[in-house]
Design goal:
alpha+beta, 2 strands, 2 helices, two-stranded antiparallel sheet, about 15% helix
């Protein structure tokens, strides 16, 4: 079947905003600095195929924990 996907994932990208190198000195200055850099910090993915297919009943109170990989 053309265009068929086996799985659907929710992908999250974590961005670090601050100086290039983190030190206690830089952390204090980073809040005042105008030259903040955006750098990738981590990524996480959650398989949501079963929820979208209706195999699992989505519950608003249920929390899904996804490990963030550096």
């Amino acid at each position: 079947m053309k265009g068929h996907r086996d799985s659907v994932y929710l992908v999250c990208q974590v961005i670090r905003i601050g100086d290039m190198f983190s030190t206690p000195e830089n952390d204090v200055k980073a809040t005042k600095s105008k030259n903040k850099m955006r750098r990738p910090f981590g990524v996480a993915a959650l398989d949501v195929t079963a929820i979208l297919n209706g195999s699992i009943n989505p519950d608003e109170d249920k929390q899904h924990f996804v490990p963030i990989l550096p």
